[in-house]
Amino acid sequence: MFPIILSILILSTTSNAAVQDFCVADLKAAAGPTGYSCKNPATVTIDDFIFSGFRKPGNTSNTIKTAVTPASADQFPGVNGLGISVARLETEQGGLVPLHSHPGATEIAIVTQGSLVAGFISSANTVYYKSLEEGDTIVFPEGLLHFLFNSGNGTAKAIFSFSSSNPRTQLTSFALFGNDLPSDIVGKVTFLDAEVVKKYKGLLGGSR
Fold first, then answer.
1. Which amino acids does the record list as binding Mn(2+) (predicted)?
2. Is 70 part of any domain?
3. Is-contact 150 115, C-beta < 8 A?
């Protein structure tokens, strides 16, 4: 009996093993639910496994005074299918990353410069947040709303790592106000006055 059970265990642990070393994203093809299809291995080069987008500083001249430079499968084809990606954050004094979530990834943030306040909200609506300094690391569990803002007097920087090659991002404010859902419906489901909804739709590009 034991040899049979052992054989089943071995088969179950090897049946999902990778059948090739990597799956460099074919960016010319459409992405599906599981990511991009694989580029022909004969056309893969070392450059597919190199990302140089962090060489230049990001543009923080925007409303939130923040630049996030992603290195996911869209920008870094070599990570496609590997369950990992990274991003860089630069945020000026008073800058922030508003409430958002990553539907398909857990995120780890490492502060590399300055001070940040970062936190997340659990599905039980419990809030966890703390002031972080250079060298501190925080984890945001998959799918939960989270945020951060610059709490110091200068530029703050961080590196993010995700448990997905394409973590996707949904900004809460744009989900509510950057869409074509009628203002009266948005107001009804958020308990906000319709005029307030129209104001924010106007700011974030939603139709009123």
1. 100, 102, 107, 146
2. yes
3. yes
